[in-house]
């Protein structure tokens, strides 16, 4: 079935373990992080404003990142992630500083010591030829589509955001974003959030987007090239308000894309009924003129490859999957990558709910099929802490979805949906971890969920699925 995320176009060589910096070793939380050298616990980001100019003919990006942040502890140096690109100049609180780089780290000295809680600003001019960065999961981040218009895309999960802007690349460092992108006349630029302004000026066009988010850096996206568009509206069942959508795709795929994406409004209507209000201001799918290994759930603006569009809705489960991530993965994001089942198990289960809702296979039938497949595989996966190199293991997706199905069968449909809705409501716009989910479930069903979740999340052998409940039905509520 699914498997969203992780690689764009180029399959890269695997890397060895990523080294931790001294600062990170001092400041990282008690639990060992999966990517200790990545991101910084020295500060929290409040906002990014990215002023970018991209020349598709040369493949050159020139940028300026205006960042607002708050020191999380006393600081003499601000640490950011940035790969492959060159810093032209940097200011901290308006004062020019000499930036240092170390591998994919950008280090900026503070003009004076910052106390914990002190707000500060960064202004970083940078540029170069962006491209994918190597990661344990292949090459990820900024990439070129290879089409005739010099199109580009971003598919950064989990470590690729530094391929196009300096950031604190942690899944739990979420911020507001503004994008101002200049491209040659006749080219489009698409980014997360809503289009605030579009100006054509001589030989260039400038596109400005605003996304209040908050959004983790790895979910930020920019697509450039030439696109046809389709706008649509969906009813939010939870609030009654209208969600506006705008899909983009290569003109030659218009017919197939319109058909394959056409049920997104119906998905939003169903998902808002099950999970609560749609969490962001807008939504839209982008299809790029390139084959992608997997779609990616970039916030408000997921990306699909042309290979995911065939005019027959063959990949509609992936359309449902990426939409579901807007609640589970994007609005409620991860505290750490060890909690990945909270993203992928949930989005996979939403595919099964959608299948049931439209009268195809019920979730119970899919769960029992997937359970049998899991049972024939090695029993060596701890879902709640799968290990760094297994965060995108297929079994995380299907065992995670089976875990939710086991909860549903144990709790009943109504209490199960209340659990999902209240989970999103409690953590909307923030990050959460597996321990918080277990505690949340225990509040809804104190005597049944603890042992059940422990077995599914922390024991390696696959637990049995509970027997099916008589009336099928979440999908039809
Ligand atoms: Zn996914």
Automatic annotation (TrEMBL):
<dbReference type="InterPro" id="IPR006311">
    <property type="entry name" value="TAT_signal"/>
</dbReference>
<dbReference type="Pfam" id="PF01433">
    <property type="entry name" value="Peptidase_M1"/>
</dbReference>
<dbReference type="InterPro" id="IPR045357">
    <property type="entry name" value="Aminopeptidase_N-like_N"/>
</dbReference>
<keyword id="KW-0031">Aminopeptidase</keyword>
<keyword id="KW-0482">Metalloprotease</keyword>
<dbReference type="InterPro" id="IPR027268">
    <property type="entry name" value="Peptidase_M4/M1_CTD_sf"/>
</dbReference>
<keyword id="KW-0862">Zinc</keyword>
<dbReference type="InterPro" id="IPR001930">
    <property type="entry name" value="Peptidase_M1"/>
</dbReference>
<dbReference type="GO" id="GO:0004177">
    <property type="term" value="F:aminopeptidase activity"/>
</dbReference>
<feature type="signal peptide">
    <location>
        <begin position="1"/>
        <end position="22"/>
    </location>
</feature>
<comment type="similarity">
    <text>Belongs to the peptidase M1 family.</text>
</comment>
<keyword id="KW-0378">Hydrolase</keyword>
<dbReference type="InterPro" id="IPR014782">
    <property type="entry name" value="Peptidase_M1_dom"/>
</dbReference>
<dbReference type="Pfam" id="PF17900">
    <property type="entry name" value="Peptidase_M1_N"/>
</dbReference>
<dbReference type="InterPro" id="IPR042097">
    <property type="entry name" value="Aminopeptidase_N-like_N_sf"/>
</dbReference>
<dbReference type="InterPro" id="IPR050344">
    <property type="entry name" value="Peptidase_M1_aminopeptidases"/>
</dbReference>
<feature type="domain" description="Aminopeptidase N-like N-terminal">
    <location>
        <begin position="45"/>
        <end position="219"/>
    </location>
</feature>
<protein>
    <recommendedName>
        <fullName>Aminopeptidase N</fullName>
        <ecNumber>3.4.11.2</ecNumber>
    </recommendedName>
</protein>
<keyword id="KW-0732">Signal</keyword>
<feature type="domain" description="Peptidase M1 membrane alanine aminopeptidase">
    <location>
        <begin position="267"/>
        <end position="443"/>
    </location>
</feature>
<keyword id="KW-0645">Protease</keyword>
<keyword id="KW-0479">Metal-binding</keyword>
């Amino acid at each position: 079935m699914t498997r969203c995320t992780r690689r764009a176009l180029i399959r890269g060589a695997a890397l060895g373990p990523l080294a931790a910096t001294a600062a990170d070793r001092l400041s990282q939380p008690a639990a060992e992080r999966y990517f200790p050298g990545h991101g910084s616990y020295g500060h929290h980001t409040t906002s990014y404003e990215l002023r970018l100019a991209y020349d598709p003919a040369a493949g050159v990006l020139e940028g300026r990142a205006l960042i607002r942040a708050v020191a999380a502890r006393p600081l003499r140096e601000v640490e950011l992630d940035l790969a492959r690109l060159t810093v032209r100049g940097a200011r901290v609180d308006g004062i020019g500083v000499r930036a240092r780089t170390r591998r994919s780290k950008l280090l900026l000295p503070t003009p004076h010591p910052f106390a914990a809680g002190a707000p500060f600003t960064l202004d970083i001019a940078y540029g170069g030829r962006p491209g994918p960065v190597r990661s344990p999961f292949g090459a990820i981040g900024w990439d070129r589509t290879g089409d005739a218009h010099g199109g580009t895309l971003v598919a950064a999960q989990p470590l690729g955001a530094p391929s196009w802007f300096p950031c604190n690349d942690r899944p739990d460092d979420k911020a507001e974003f503004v994008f101002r992108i200049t491209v040659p006349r006749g080219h489009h630029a698409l980014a997360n959030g809503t289009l605030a302004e579009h100006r054509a000026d001589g030989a260039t066009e400038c596109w400005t987007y605003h996304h209040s988010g908050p959004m983790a850096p790895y979910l930020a996206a920019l697509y450039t090239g030439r696109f046809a568009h389709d706008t649509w509206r969906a009813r939010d069942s939870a609030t009654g308000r209208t969600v506006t959508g705008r899909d983009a795709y290569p003109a030659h795929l218009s017919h197939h894309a319109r058909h394959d994406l056409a049920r997104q409004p119906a998905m939003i209507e169903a998902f808002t009924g099950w999970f609560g209000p749609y969490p962001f201001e807008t939504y839209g799918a982008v299809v790029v003129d390139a084959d992608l290994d997997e779609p990616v759930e970039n916030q408000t603006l997921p990306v699909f490859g042309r290979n995911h569009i065939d005019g027959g809705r063959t990949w509609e489960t992936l359309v449902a999957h990426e939409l579901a991530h807007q609640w589970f993965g994007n609005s409620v994001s991860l505290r750490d990558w060890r909690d990945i089942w909270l993203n992928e198990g949930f989005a996979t289960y939403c595919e099964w709910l959608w299948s049931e809702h439209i009268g195809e296979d019920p979730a119970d039938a899919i769960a029992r099929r997937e359970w049998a497949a899991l049972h024939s595989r090695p029993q060596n996966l701890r879902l709640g802490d799968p290990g760094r190199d297994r965060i995108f293991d297929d079994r995380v997706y299907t065992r995670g979805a089976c875990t939710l199905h086991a909860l549903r069968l144990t709790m009943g449909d109504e209490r199960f949906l209340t659990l999902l809705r209240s989970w999103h409501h409690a953590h909307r716009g923030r990050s959460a971890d597996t321990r918080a989910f277990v505690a949340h479930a225990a509040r809804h069903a104190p005597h049944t969920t603890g042992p059940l979740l422990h077995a599914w999340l922390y024991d390696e052998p696959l637990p049995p699925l509970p027997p099916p409940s008589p009336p099928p039905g979440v999908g039809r509520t």
